[in-house]
């Protein structure tokens, strides 16, 4: 008999890398995908480019303007705590869109899904084992290193009336979102890998592969 396509099969075999920004998640996922011949799903890329229609439709459904908020309203008119809470709440909505993306993929091998929006509390119900997920977060020193050496980490992406305060707010927000991810991972029994810059990307990929174990081979 021909094999029956299982729309949930991809999700059951997915290996998840969540955590904080600037911890090297995308780099590690690319290394592992190349090393083991796997498909990598990059949440940030798909969320920014493939979900815009849904984002606009949702705003309209809630009576909100379809266009993005102004940079000043995003980065200057809220506290970092409020920003972090809004970010985490938004992840829950956008996670369903990411799952639709993943259901549409087919591979006889596991998929590696990475991104800061792949939150432990959202992914945990899908896991057959906590070993299918790892949460990567940078130490504070490594976060500052990334911000000072990676142009894309330091770039705001949009001009504001107070760039210095906007950047400080963004960094503080990211720190709070990372701390929340660590707490949520602990609650779900998911491993947290702290990245301090003492090991290169290949060595971090080795550690992540060891965590995934036989699931990645």
From TrEMBL:
<protein>
    <submittedName>
        <fullName>Uncharacterized protein</fullName>
    </submittedName>
</protein>
<dbReference type="InterPro" id="IPR027417">
    <property type="entry name" value="P-loop_NTPase"/>
</dbReference>
